[in-house]
Write a structure and sequence with these properties.
- Helix content is 76%, strand content 0%.
- By secondary structure, the chain is mainly α.
- The radius of gyration is 18 Å and the shape is elongated.
- It starts with 15 loop residues before the first helix and ends with a helix.
Length: 103
């Protein structure tokens, strides 16, 4: 069995629907990046840099959106499965650590 980014592992971190949404978002970003690569390869004049910058900004924004979606989904999933207020607090603390580390 080969590991591909689109294979989903069943677990409790995210629901299958949440994983599918994130994978779809990332596939779109992957397409945007391929488009940027083509723009760079075809750039002939300095004005072409404007198009490249615009597409890079769009890809960055899409990645940021995927990051926010991941965190939002994690908050929903982890707090919904918490059995006690202490587990909710632990989940919130772990997500706050992620934000502090990566945002």
């Amino acid at each position: 069995m080969s590991d591909t980014p689109t294979q989903m592992v069943h677990g409790t971190a995210l629901t299958d629907v949440q994983k599918k949404d994130l994978l779809h978002r990332l596939a779109r970003v992957e397409g945007q990046i391929r488009g940027v690569q083509k723009l760079i390869a075809a750039a002939a004049v300095p004005a072409d840099c404007n198009s490249v910058a615009q597409q890079l900004a769009a890809a960055r924004k899409a990645l940021d959106r995927a990051f926010i979606t991941l965190l939002t989904d994690a908050i929903v999933t982890h707090t919904a499965t918490a059995a006690t207020p202490e587990e909710v607090q632990q989940s919130a603390s772990a997500i706050a650590t992620l934000l502090d580390k990566f945002a």
